[in-house]
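dumping the sequnces here before i forget
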Amino acid sequence: SQTIHQWPATLVQPVGSPLSLECTVEGTSNPNLYWYRQAAGRGLQLLFYSVGIGQISSEVPQNLSASRPQDRQFILSSKKLLLSDSGFYLCAGRQYTNTGELFFGEGSRLTVL
Amino acid sequence: QKEVEQDPGPLSVPEGAIVSLNCTYSNSAFQYFMWYRQYSRKGPELLMYTYSSGNKEDGRFTAQVDKSSKYISLFIRDSQPSDSATYLCAPGGYQKVTFGTGTKLQVIP
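..and the predicted 3d for all of it:
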């Protein structure tokens, strides 16, 4: 079965500091990968998705970026964090089925102070 | 216009109640409709899905799609405290996957 590993699980960062969240996938190859953000009490906001190595589609510009250096690795970054970047970040992979259901990691909770 | 709209709740019901959770969607080309369940501080997990119009039942859960009105429903029978979670709907079958806001459900013992 497919599994998403995501880290760190929790982090507290000052405004203006950099960010790097990492996600790796097991149990499948060449998956579509996604980064979502969930603000407190709100839904999942799609940030980036990738259909292959080096291929990134951005849904939310501003100060976040994503990279996919390897088939099963997806990284979310920022050079300078804003207070509004606080939230619960989720990495997901997509099944290669007609339904294309997603399987998620456990999430990374970011607090920017 | 958002692809999927969902009442965020919260929705509180007593244990044993029948729960109805609903979404509307805008794109008539959607064929698959997914329901995910997310417990607090966890990643979502797929609960069930339906294809096109009609009903699909899985234990206490029934998913229903009405394509004529672009309306998706999830019914929970004999609700349990363990059903307390956020329920998210999303269309399936596309590379870009967007979600409704999710409805937070609390089942009170």
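Chain B is about 0% helix and 55% strand.
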